[in-house]
Automatic annotation (TrEMBL), chains A, B, C:
Membrane topology category: Multi-pass membrane protein
UniProt keyword Transmembrane helix present: yes
SUPFAM superfamilies to which the protein is assigned, alphabetical: Ammonium transporter (SSF111352)
UniProt xrefs under PANTHER family: AMMONIUM TRANSPORTER, AMMONIUM TRANSPORTER SLL1017-RELATED
Example of a GO MF term: ammonium channel activity
Gene3D superfamilies in the record: Ammonium transporter AmtB like domains
Name of this chain's protein: Ammonium transporter
GO CC annotations on file: membrane
Origin superkingdom: Bacteria
Transmembrane segments: 35-57, 77-97, 132-150, 157-177, 197-215, 227-252, 272-290, 302-320, 326-345, 352-372, 378-403
Length: 437, 437, 437
């Protein structure tokens, strides 16, 4: 969503380009190449850092007896995502479609071959390795979302197998439709700047289907309709995770501008920083006020989820809104967990960290509101949401079912009750501290 | 505090400009605009990250029963600061004074309207949104300081109301006097490069007045003059918080150069990085040696506060000192908590995390020592310190008194004894871990 | 290990230059100077952040009763490293050798005098202060490694004295041989891009000799050959530390390109980011699979060490390998802790956090494999490894022995059993949480 910007001297004027498409045209020389690449590198390490944010958020919100498992899952899923996105994912995501298509692959086979030492394809306007790195960390983010919802009751082996398919195939196919220039982009003008749908809803659907197939944690929902709260072990850690994610989101949204080699581009990146920040601020304040009014107490986990939901909501279009728009979009995002966390519990869908309200519901909200400020139609956005829902739900469901039917998804009731850490990992999270659970 | 620097080719020579004034003149083209903006963005996300640092530092130094509350306060105050600095703060801070004034507001009313998509005012030399973001995170820092001192005994609603006034009015007025080009800058040549007084002392005075009005935690000081130590629950978390703050300070001080579009500017940013780092190193070593000599043990919380005090001390002038100067300035900063933490206890002023010695006392020290190396007079610096003291103390005092007289500041003794987490937040910080307090 | 890269317009072609030598020649103007300096600053703050990573990793892997001590050691060693690298270290590391030499010092005496405000030596192509900062944080990393191995049984005063010598003399001498252009570089064409040997093995040898002289923790090894596992207190904290180190490694390896002022340089930095990331990913996956197969459980601490060992392994040559190479190099790195952690226990060498397998063994592996992809000979690499071994072992051994013979290294058995926190630091790490150990 860029517009021509005032440019000086030898710097070329930026052509409008869709965010996260493979080749922004805004290059006017070696300096622009360097600056565009630098944006990917900085954005890339910030989004990589989000892996730590998810790890801390989830480690803080599970019970002590499952914390080591959650830590392992998070560092493992990031690593699998990295490998799979190289082995096959990137070339599915960016297939070089000729006209609308639903699945394809770049020429040269599944593996993405980067350029050699010192080689630089100056026509792309940035280092292809920097772009690959930036795209890879988005892929990992998608997997992180699943990890949170399904915590405390899934064995690590089937979880890692699911992550392998999700990051190698399911997510890249969704990306190909939009950022890869495929069906949603070509036929519907679907708009998803940094991934409210492509990243967050994809993770959210995979998590939701997983939660339905896996079932809730033992003892979570009583036969009489009662809900047992299993409080997280370490709220400061969850708070840290949220701050890490917030920080990483500047890279997530800001670097999705894909260029900062012109005055207009870097000004847009700045605007994205502000809007991203303000949507999160609004999400926090709304969640605090809502829980204070509803429960008489300001629930800290809702404040954290409010920040994240605000961030997810602004992700589909962080550039076009004014600050006022961003505050409204993020603020409405912040109310969604307050509404949907109890609602999921009524439906007996056990989402340990609230990832479905935050990433799926707020992701849909953010995607559908794009036409308010950006260049998209409501129908196009709705088609994008629905197509993603169908594909991710069906594909995830098949994988989950195969895993359930073969190696099984859940540990025995004894293992789940004792905690996965001892049986699955062999390392307790807080020896010398934990005195219960 | 910049001087003309050797510049090459088409890059213009930097004109001397006061740090954090609105418009450095050092632009020589689009590349300089991009680089200046990038400095604000990198500096901005580093200082934003300091919000996490304060949260972890404070969460680590309070008792388990008040930890969730402290987490909520920190993410809440950052969010309020963001909103208020947009609604009114920035336009008070940078009012475009004509001649010396004490309070004003930029044309166009309280709300700061950023530029539209793709718009870039190249005459400023940087994206106005990037500058706003960088200034906003400083505003949040000020509020973080108050949160630490008043922990464990203030209700969240009056706390958040105070933060609203502090970030919307009290802090921006102080900023307007100096970085906004107002009274202190115009009439006294006051010099405060990155905010030893404007940020840290402002937070410190607000915290001190709050502590006086709020009173100490229950049981903290015995009637017989004894001091009960309430040890913090999580020292590694406090250590993490200190490292986060240290990291963020490279953005806090380094990006306060406000430009890196010339060879001279980026060299000065580099020098600031080194001086900032070395002042903190010296603060740590001095605090370790001092506590080892005085108590026979090297107190880790003093080492952490030594780092922070060294950082606060160098903040008023991180560029002009040589490395040797920086070590002395930071090293003396590091001794201040060792002296003032026990002194405050003697005065029965209950400062939970030691924020007053670190931010207020070291901030005054750093401000008054500027004339040793930088371009300022002792009298001008003293006037700046005193004027900030009077304004922040009186304004804060009025707000605190109104809150005390209306909705009240403190929870009941029962709530305070049981811990604020259960009654104010409804979420315990370490369920399954905490076995006392 | 750089090669000439395609460059555009007025940007000069990069001359081949050894990584981390003092003066890359690839400057074509003020913009290149700014960008090169910016690379050092970003790389510098990322590597500085690794100090927090080591602190968290070690704090998470020691027992509760020694955690405050570990926090103090980590912030203290970083601070000492900063001071010593300025007082003497840098000028030993970069002595300006004329021909091969084994020890020397730059003209002008031990202290490194940076340039004044606004001064910039444009012929170097970057700000000398930014280079110094970047080199300093590497020095601190070396000391962090020692801290982990020797945890829980060394008094803080002798530890800090050792760090003073290590960072002031032992490490800088090793650096002078290679990055300083000395013996290993001139006579053997030794190649160590970012420090598998210079940083990680140096720390590892110092740690190993320390562990041998210090002996194991009380009760760690039974007289009957049994090994008592002392589990770490806080696995999420150790996980956080690993993620921090991984993040910091992008600066560690990426900015060791030493320049991004040309299209070729920034493309190489991007490639280094990818290779660094993928080596770590492979290390994690290999460690998970290996422990799952060997023990039937996927050991989370091994996964963390697998990431770090993969990172250490790729550090000697992160640019020349293809992604496939990087995965193999990192993957083999990841298996090393799985093999060597139990092996060290058989030898009754007590390495609390597994730093010797991770930093020393993987560092040797990474150094010796350089000829596979990079420009080096196996013999040259072997000489580099052996010379480093001899120098660091002998020099460290002498310092450790002197300390042992004078002020003593270990606390009394009573103090060690009670935990160092109470007696050495006076501040417990988790009051209100810890209920045993």
């Amino acid at each position: 969503m860029k517009y021509a910007a005032p440019a000086l001297a030898a710097l070329a004027v930026a052509e409008p380009a869709f965010a996260q498409e493979a080749a922004p045209d805004a290059v006017g020389g070696g300096t622009a190449y360097i600056l565009n690449t630098l944006l990917f590198l900085i954005g890339g390490f910030l989004v990589m850092w989000m892996a730590a944010g998810f790890a801390m958020l989830e480690a803080g919100l599970v019970r002590a007896k499952n914390t080591s498992t959650q830590c392992l899952k998070n560092i493992g899923l990031y690593s699998i995502a990295g490998l799979m996105f190289w082995v096959i994912g990137y070339n599915i995501a960016y297939p070089g479609f000729e006209g609308p298509g639903l699945i394809g692959m770049a020429d040269g086979g599944p593996i993405y071959w980067m350029q050699g030492v010192g080689e630089a394809d100056v026509e792309t306007g940035y280092s292809v390795a920097s772009d690959w790195f930036f795209q890879m960390v988005f892929c990992a983010t998608t997997a992180s979302i699943v990890s949170g919802t399904l915590a405390e009751r899934i064995k690590i082996v089937p979880f890692f197998i699911f992550v392998t398919v999700l990051t190698g195939i399911i997510y890249p196919v969704v990306v190909s439709w939009e950022w890869g220039g495929g069906y949603l982009d070509a036929a519907w003008g679907f708009s998803d700047f940094a991934g409210s749908t492509l990243v967050h809803s994809t993770g959210g659907w995979a998590a939701l289907i997983g939660a339905l197939i896996l079932g809730p944690r033992l003892g979570r929902y009583g036969a009489d309709g009662s809900v047992n709260v299993f409080p997280g072990t370490n709220i400061p850690l969850a708070t840290l995770g949220t701050f890490i994610l917030w920080l990483g989101w500047f890279g997530f949204n800001g670097a999705s501008q894909l260029a900062m080699g012109t005055v207009g581009d870097v000004s847009d990146v700045s605007k994205i920083f502000v809007n991203t920040n303000m949507a999160a601020c609004a999400g926090v304040v709304v969640a605090i006020i809502a829980t204070q009014l509803r429960y008489g107490k300001a629930d800290v986990t809702m404040a954290l989820n409010g920040a994240l939901a605000g961030l997810v909501a602004i992700t589909a279009e962080p550039l076009a809104p004014t600050v006022g728009h961003a505050i409204i979009i993020g603020g409405i995002g912040g109310i969604l967990p307050v509404i949907f966390v109890p609602l999921l519990d009524k439906l007996k869908i056990d989402d340990v960290v609230g990832a479905i309200p935050v990433h799926l519901v707020a992701g849909i909200w953010g995607t559908l509101i794009v036409p308010w400020t950006g260049d998209a139609t409501f129908m196009g956005q709705l088609v994008g949401v629905l197509l993603t829902m169908v594909w991710v739900s069906v594909a995830s469901g098949i994988v989950w079912f195969i895993l359930k039917a073969t190696i099984g998804l859940r540990p025995s009731a004894e293992v789940e009750t004792a905690g996965l850490d001892i049986h699955e990992i062999g390392v307790e999270a807080y020896p010398g501290l934990a005195n219960q659970n």
